[in-house]
Write a structure and sequence with these properties.
Blueprint (H helix, E strand, L loop, with lengths): L2 H26 L4 E11 L8 E5 L4 E3 L7 H14 L3 E6 L4 H4 L6 E10 L1
Antiparallel strand pairs: 1-2, 1-5, 2-3, 4-5
Length: 118
Amino acid sequence: MSEIETTRHAAGEAAALDVLGTAADWAASGRKLALATVVETWGSAPRPTGSHLVIDEEGNFEGSVSGGCVEGAVIAEAIDVIEAGEPKLLEFGVADETAWRVGLSCGGRIRVYVERLG
């Protein structure tokens, strides 16, 4: 692993620990929670696989699964997951690989798994 890759990996692990620490604190205070996790990316997704977003029943959140691109939609789905108790696999992005051939640099796809905690 290169020095840059090692630094990115360490930063990603630190961010995950921060999010999971927040989740533990929120759970201890009695909040109902969901955890969203990036499980697959394709193209220019800004967050790597394994990135987390924790959401409470009021829509408060910590972390990131897309750098702001789809967080609002993930938060709305997470609130539904908290209420219903059923996990969801969400997919966002360009549905066609030809997007790259025509130069859509912001294209890509991301899959996010959302599950209730506790």
